[in-house]
Amino acid sequence: MKLIYGDRGSGKTTELIKIAHERGLYIVCFDERRAMQISRLARSLEMDIRYPITVDELPLQRGVFIKEVLVDDMEDVLARMLRKNISAATITKEDEG
C-alpha cells in the first residue's frame, strides 16, 4: 500500500486522481459532496476517472466486484466505516521490494 501524506492543499488528492486515471481504479471517499469535488478536480486536470464511491455505497453496491481501491482522506473514511471517532491507529510499513 502506498501512503500519500501531506498538509491540506498539498496535492494528495491530485496524486490519487493520477493513479485512478492510470490504473482505472475507484476512489473511495467520505461522502457524496467529496465525491463531487474529486470528480470536478479530475475534470479540471483533464483526467478521466470512474466516479468516486462513498463509504456508504461501497459495501452495498459495487464492493463485491471491486478488488482494489484508492482511499481519499483515509482517517475520515475509516471513522465513517466504524461510526466512531478514532483516537489513534497504527499502520505497518510494507517493504517496497
* Helix percentage: 40-55%
Amino- and carboxy-terminal Cα gap: 12 Å
- Tally of discrete structural domains: 1
Global structural class: mainly alpha
Which stretches of 5+ consecutive residues score pLDDT under 50?
none
Radius of gyration: 14 Å
Tell me the major beta sheet.
3 strands, parallel
Strand content: 5-15%
Shape assignment: globular
Q: For the largest beta sheet, what order do the strands appear in spatially?
A: 2-1-3
Number of strands: 3
Helix and strand pattern: HEHEHEH
Helix count equals 4
Topology:
Blueprint lengths: L11 H12 L2 E4 L2 H13 L8 E2 L3 H5 L6 E3 L2 H9 L15
Parallel strand pairs: 1-2, 1-3
Protein name: Replicase domain protein
InterPro entries: P-loop_NTPase
Organism: Fictibacillus macauensis ZFHKF-1
Task: Report on the architecture of this protein.
The protein has 97 residues and is mainly alpha-helical. The protein has one domain (12-82). 40% of the residues lie in helices and 9% in strands. It contains four helices and three strands; from the N terminus they run αβαβαβα. The chain has helices at 12-23, 32-44, 58-62, 74-82; strands spanning 26-29, 53-54, 69-71. A three-stranded parallel beta sheet has the order 2-1-3. Helix 2 links the parallel strand 1 (26-29) and strand 2. The longest helix is centred in the middle third of the chain and has 13 residues, at 32-44. The mean pLDDT is 89. InterPro entries: P-loop_NTPase (IPR027417). This is Replicase domain protein.
